[in-house]
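Complex record, two chains
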Amino acid sequence: MARAPYVSFRVRAPDPGRRTTAQDIVDTVVDDVRSGRLPAGSRLPPVRVLEQQLGLSKNTVQSAYDELVARGLLEGREREGIFVAYASIDTDVSVPRVAEPPAFRARPAPPLHAGSFPHGVMSLSAVFVDPELLPRERLSECARAVLHARGLETFYDVHGYGPLREIIAERLRARGMRDVRAANVLLTTGSQQALDVLGRTLAEPRVAIESPVYPGAKLLFESHGHVVTGLRLDPFAGIPLDEWEARLSAARPALLYAVTSYQNPTGYSYTSHELERVLELAERLGFAVAEDDWGSDMLSGSEYRPMLRLLGGAHVLYVNSFTKKLLPSLRVGFLVAHESLIPALLAAKRLSTLGNAWFSEAIVAEFLARAYYDTHLQSLQRELDARYQSCLGILREQMPEGVRWTLPGGGPTLWLEVPRRVNLARLRADLAERRIEIEAAESAFTGEPHLHGFRVSYAFVPPDRLSRALATVGDLLREALS
Amino acid sequence: MARAPYVSFRVRAPDPGRRTTAQDIVDTVVDDVRSGRLPAGSRLPPVRVLEQQLGLSKNTVQSAYDELVARGLLEGREREGIFVAYASIDTDVSVPRVAEPPAFRARPAPPLHAGSFPHGVMSLSAVFVDPELLPRERLSECARAVLHARGLETFYDVHGYGPLREIIAERLRARGMRDVRAANVLLTTGSQQALDVLGRTLAEPRVAIESPVYPGAKLLFESHGHVVTGLRLDPFAGIPLDEWEARLSAARPALLYAVTSYQNPTGYSYTSHELERVLELAERLGFAVAEDDWGSDMLSGSEYRPMLRLLGGAHVLYVNSFTKKLLPSLRVGFLVAHESLIPALLAAKRLSTLGNAWFSEAIVAEFLARAYYDTHLQSLQRELDARYQSCLGILREQMPEGVRWTLPGGGPTLWLEVPRRVNLARLRADLAERRIEIEAAESAFTGEPHLHGFRVSYAFVPPDRLSRALATVGDLLREALS
């Protein structure tokens, strides 16, 4: 049986420069028992523990305890320890209990998808890539190689693992961002932490975002107390640039967060003209731009696709992540910023997590250093292209008239827009009964949703299952529209 | 040589339910060139890319491009691609450049130690444990075992890796927290993210902290806009409980963040009496308590040491981490909370990082499952005990009169208090010249520092080097005091 916990107490000595004496211990215990600081029945530290704590030679504590037992303040109980004697005490401090309900009052929890997928339910709106297409084996091989070559690193780097930042910078330079150096790259836990770091760092709390947008970005900026202005994006009609200009002029945001390639959730990619107008507005109205480029690696031919960062230069903040393309569990993303911003961004990252798990960063570095990434992206793009084509074919075959979809040209998902008279909540419930999950998109909009649909993930759901699921969606839609 | 980037553009079709035709492409390009959306000299997507994007059969795009070249709107350049012809255009949209200095205005960066240690400089105040004492090899062995048995996991769990949460809960139950289940445990990136999650979740932005305190906690709460009340802690005189009561009654914080065992930076451990008063105040004044228990695992005999969580029950939030005790680069910490708070805390974690790197969590789980942790803690405690004793001996030998130090009883560091007339900035500079670094502790206090000293890390600096460094400190202090 475990013995009773002992109390911790502090022995007071007049001069800490000298060793504590037995008398100091006696005086302290007498004081503490009298004042009630040491309640009756408390177990005192064992002799060896107190000697150790105070750096005393053997037997000093024992002689003090002997003295206190002799005075009747303490009592020894065989095999149990030394206790404050009940006989000599008249104070009693009982242990208080903290009240139910918990004193900690939490802010209401915003809704956000959990990122894990229940067995037996098909997540038709998942932004993840089918695990079958991810290089799990090669990443394990890289992990083994890192362990073999150098073992685990002891310390973390707040900035992120140096060799990985070097390779990322080199790859971005090859894509035309010629000014990017490792010092401009801040590694983050997925792109989510990159957005969090931006949100924490922003001096003026006004952010503009697309609507619809990735809800994790919208909720994040709102959670930091930022005023969030939504800019309506219609993937079937493009960006209403004059409307954007009017809203941006009125709201005067400090930052525009934009997903210009393969916008989430619509799959829309900005045209070159739109990219240029956005940069022109940024300069004229004085807002910063953060570009989240999560999707372009998944689009074939994307190395030729101009990004805001490429057009706008060093002052466009650039966010990307390996989460979707390598393995979600690694959680490695990054933020590229002008060197003048790095100290503030680093400070924000430190307050958030100090630094991140080194091993994940080292595995990704090894994977990139072996040039596995380009080979992987090529085959991933090929497969996603084929799945995209197949999905378009299924949609043309299965969808009733009036249903529309975006044409992102590859990548993981497209947006399926259904006629307004379809009750989406009802459709969601009917699909859930058939173990098919579609995401409620309402939280992706800043105001009343101007789109009426949901994301379809051909990347996550294999073609044969996608075909069956979309046939079910088609049937339910026909029913709803009849 | 790489070819010019091509523009992305969106082909408009009257009915998205049907396939895009060559005529749709022609119409779109004509419109876009006329409106200036496709500026002269723009490269158009290659035929295969556009076909792929639109899900078209072969040659549809080619025939559209042929038509447009015939009309003089486009021109082919050998080996370069298809471009908008200069001849036919009178509009020109030049690429704007974003202004220097960067439009992104950042909040001032708070100071916080980087967590990495420059070579050749002895960090006398580091809270880290000497890497020689950390189980790097055994952790690598666990990493290899995880890779061998199951390879890398694909998805992350927002809550944290289940098996690790199970083992942590089991260990806490064995320490007397009988109500803790895996569902109460939230894994975090070190304890820093646990504090961040608390800070983000708190409904009423008023926090009380000890002063001095770990600066990363103080700066974090301040960065969330919380009103931070400091509670003076004197490690030589204990906690002025009446003063605390007065300040807490006036400030009415929603949360008290307390490091009750081995307080950072003083090394002070609350007495049982102090723990009980804190709980009594929490109940009476209605504030929640978050206990950061980072130190007790490093103190021998700590399994008997009562914690706030043990005395206060399920409504004391409990924070701990494996960072210092296993390997800093793993970044695995945790937060234990009442089940009613878990949804809000999870939501805050999601906004921060969604989920964390799985592999680190799996390595720690394997290490704990193999019962390596207890063996490791025993030998770590033994070594830290010996280093503590040795440090006390060195201090008694080397420090001039008037210098005092705390007696934490083991663990990694103690607080060295020097007379007020020593100029600490000067001392720091003189030591830096001799390649010895001591931490500036000013940012650890909420107001004017009532202590005048710094942390001495016997855990990080091996005894022989510690002896030389403290001899230097002693010499400089004697000089300053003479």
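Note: Residues 372-398 of chain B form the longest helix (27 residues).
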